[in-house]
Amino acid sequence: MPELLSLLIALVVLVVAARLGGSAAERIGQPPVVGEMVVGIALGPSLLGWLWPAAAATLFPEDLLPHLFTLSQVGLLIFMFLVGLEFDHGQLRRLGHTAVLASHASITIPALFGCLAALYLYPRLSSDAVGFREFALFMAVAMSVTAFPVLARILRERRLQDTPLGTVTIACAAVDDVTAWCLLAGVVALVRVAHGGLPVALMVAGLAVYVGAMLVARRTVLPAILTTFQRRERLTDNLFAAVIALVLLSAWVTEWLGLHLLFGAFFAGVALPKSDLFVRALRERLEMVATVLLLPIFFAFTGLRTEIGLVQGREMWFYFGLILLLAVSGKLLGSTIAARMTGLSWRDATALGILMNTRGLMELVVLNIGLELGVISPALFSMMVLMALVTTFMTTPLVEVVYGRAQRRTGVVPTKQLTAVQPDFAP
After folding, report:
1. What is the pLDDT of residues 105-122, one digit of tens each?
2. Number of other residues whose CB lies within 10 A of the CB of residue 393
3. Which CATH number fits domain 2-84+96-425: 3.40.47.10, 3.90.78.10, 3.20.20.10, 1.20.1530.20?
4. Which of 331, 330, 334, 312 has the alpha carbon at shortest distance from 378?
5. Are 393 and 368 contacting, i.e. CB atoms less than 8 angstroms apart?
6. Which residue has the higher pLDDT, 409 or 30?
7. Which of 47-56, 266-275, 340-349, 374-383 is predicted with the least confidence, judged by mean pLDDT?
8. Domain boundaries, the chain
9. Quick one: angle between helices 132-144 and 313-341, nearest 10?
10. What 8-state DSSP symbol labels residue 98?
């Protein structure tokens, strides 16, 4: 019972602190996730544990951490399902070669910069317990990921979602995240096989069966869910239970195969049939609980793992500066080139490069997986968390700088500043 009471008190603190942090971030023109990330770090050893160790130990005792971890994984599972649910592959097909070219160009250079960073950081921040191949691939993924949900919210708030810039940005972010998650799945598989997971042959065969089953279900069984929803004109309890069962089963399969349960949740969201009303109904059921209760637990758990005190001395801060420089320049350069190749002006192309640097929650998910697998050290984890926070925080003010006072005042980019996407690479 005392353990349950401790958990309830911790949850109260986390929910209230996250709401306060999110509201404070919105007041200064930032997405709420920025404030929630800051609050999560502040409740960990980087601030509360440093200023008031006794309070930190009382609020988050060691025996409470497994419970927080479990709840945070449930929150991430719901979050990744919603990300997959929002992924519109039909829209990407309509955009054709434009989306494909822009998206892959915007991920190739950041991934390359991640590998270059790995060459320098591996002998300094890693150990022989981690293979260089896994370390380099992980750094490539961490540099390439973009926070698709946070980015979509920024575009909506700035009324950019229906502009040529918004269309290309959403396409790039969506494909970037899918590509990054596929690469991360490979890293997870390599590490788990090396540490006694399923044999490679069994893992590959099981993955092939899983993907085939999801493709078949998407064409045969899953459309019945949408048909039932449209016939009933509402999301019934039985229909909602069927969707949840699908998500949990898919997550269990990918976890058993040696990947990660989050991949299964994401693929389940991608596989479900898309309808605006259906997606909205599911999002309304799940998003509130995930955003208000479960994701703040994840931010706090990430904060408990983040020790900024490990980044001390000129050498360590130099490593952080190098990571930040490569992360920002890789996305900015790759995305800007991609935007120009699709016909956007230099101003819009620069804005896209800035927007694609939004890493937010998706970066924290990737980093936590890397820390769980032992691919990155606690010191490197803390540096990468700081990088995610800085790159997310800088997005909104830099976009406002690019578009000037008119956009800040009205929330609308002046029409003359946007150029139409040219059909140079259209099918």
Report:
1. 778 899 999 999 999 999
2. 20
3. 1.20.1530.20
4. 312
5. no
6. 30
7. 340-349
8. 2-84+96-425
9. 60
10. H
